[in-house]
Design a protein that fits this description.
InterPro entries: SNase_OB-fold_sf (IPR035437), Staphylococal_nuclease_OB-fold (IPR016071). Helices cover 30% and strands 22% of the residues. It is α+β, with helices and mostly antiparallel strands. It folds into two domains: 192 residues, OB fold (Dihydrolipoamide Acetyltransferase, E2P) (Beta Barrel), CATH 2.40.50.90; 103 residues, no CATH class. It has a five-stranded mixed beta barrel. A four-stranded mixed sheet has the order 11-17-13-14, with no helix packed on it. The longest helix is centred in the last third of the chain and has 24 residues. The radius of gyration is 21 Å and the shape is globular.
């Protein structure tokens, strides 16, 4: 199935882009075709892009339970953002205090995207490219390995500035190319992989353990920060992940399972047992975002209910 080519301009002033999200202004909205009705345009005619196959360190993540915006180690998070802006041709960037948004820049750099879906938040899932394209706006384009090599998505992975994070819907041949780029960056200990402890394990003594100190997969960071903000402790994090039942495909066995299958917890140490490129996540389009604190409450409730049932079964009806 081909991708839809959409030409336009990247927009950043008064926004806070990061290494995997940026705003885009299509030259012609109709080029989105059937995706137009799902895309979340603002009054300025700009739509958010969620860049396919990658996940950058968080620079302003807000857990569902509140607690304000959180970030992962900022030098690396900012490095990915700066690389994206430079890649698409946006320069002379001036941020507001604490990099909350961009105050000024050479905004409106010309570029184009390839897309075939919109996520549940109205963000266009896309491969991002700088400059013009030879094809006509709105054309169907088959993205091959040569074309993928010109994308920001692959370039960011090759530099080790983002993690590979794959969802259902990404074609297997493209996923393989992106996975190879990430594996090479890991071997060369580039970018995030020079400090990554996702597989070796992170000791979570407090929220600052993952916001200031350890570099881990952003998806794991989000799950941990959701839980820590809701409960104040990493205790029973794995129990909450089990209750969350987040669907994944294990590419090493071709089996469907859940994210918690590849997470181990030993006291306050949490680690993943699979490389990121060996897992494909479900975007769960019909599922509402929920705090893992809520999931823990659900798991505790279910456990108590099972305990009462077992007592009744052993000793007769209550």
């Amino acid at each position: 199935m081909p991708y839809r080519l959409v030409k336009g301009r990247y927009r950043v002033v008064n926004y806070a882009p990061d290494g995997d999200t940026i705003r885009f202004e299509p030259d012609d909205r109709e080029a989105l075709g059937d995706l137009l009705g799902s895309a979340r345009f603002n009054l300025r005619g700009h739509v958010p892009l969620r860049l396919e196959g990658i996940d950058a360190l968080e620079s302003h993540y807000s857990p569902p339970s509140g607690g304000g915006a959180l970030s992962q180690p900022m030098p690396l998070a900012r490095g990915a953002t700066d690389f994206l802006l430079n890649f698409v041709g946006i320069h002379e960037v001036v941020w507001t205090a604490e990099r909350r948004s961009i105050a000024s820049a050479t905004d409106g750099a010309k570029g184009h995207i390839l897309t075939r879906s919109v996520d549940k938040y109205g963000r266009v899932i896309a491969f991002a490219f700088a400059g013009d394209a030879n094809e006509e706006d709105g054309d169907d384009v088959f993205l091959d390995q040569e074309g993928l090599a010109r994308s920001y998505n692959q370039a960011a992975l090759a530099e080790g500035l983002v993690y590979p994070t794959f969802y259902w819907g990404l074609f297997a041949d493209l996923r393989t190319v992106l996975a190879d780029a990430a594996a090479t960056a890991r071997r060369q200990r580039k970018g995030v992989f020079a400090q990554d402890v996702t597989q070796t394990g992170v000791r979570v003594n407090s929220l600052s353990s993952i916001t200031d100190d350890a570099v881990i997969l952003p998806k794991l960071f989000r799950r941990l920060s959701d839980f820590l903000v809701a409960t104040g402790s990493v205790k029973d994090f794995h129990t909450a992940m089990e209750a969350n039942r987040e669907p994944v495909l294990d590419l090493t066995t071709s089996n469907f399972t859940h994210f918690d299958t590849f997470i181990e917890q030993d006291g306050d140490v949490v680690r993943m047992t699979r490389l990121l490129e060996d897992i494909v996540f479900d975007p769960m389009p019909t599922r509402e975002t929920a705090s893992l604190g809520t999931m823990l409450e659900m798991a505790t409730h279910e456990s108590n209910a099972l305990g009462k049932f077992a007592a009744s079964d052993d000793g007769g009806p209550e």
